[in-house]
Amino acid sequence: MPDLAGLLIRFRIPKIALWSDIEKAFHCLELNEEDREVVKLIWLKDVNAPISVDNVQYMRFSRVPFGVISSPFLLAATVKHHLESWDDPLADIVKNNSYVDNILVGTETTGEAWKLIKN
């Protein structure tokens, strides 16, 4: 992941600041079948009944859940992997100015800002 302090400084220096968020980014990452065994939710079917095999339901996540300590790293590594496969100046801008699922970019003119937005 890029240096957060450097990212924030680069974001605050220009006159115009642009911020973007990858919506529902964590839910885009699918877990491998074998990894789903370690990310489970244990649910009581009836909270008033005693705990028993028949009253417990195990649910496995199929996507990377938000809140797991490794989730931000997994998302950042996935985004970086895909951005590095593109030979495009915009991909470099996003790669160098993103933190997990946020993209922070600054420009000096509205023309530059609109050019970035349209790309």
UniProtKB/TrEMBL annotation:
Domain Reverse transcriptase: from-to ranges: 1-119
Protein name in the entry: Reverse transcriptase domain-containing protein
InterPro entries in the record: DNA/RNA_pol_sf, Rev_trsase/Diguanyl_cyclase, RT_dom
One Pfam family recorded for the sequence: RVT_1
Organism whose genome encodes this protein: Meloidogyne enterolobii
Transmembrane feature ranges: none
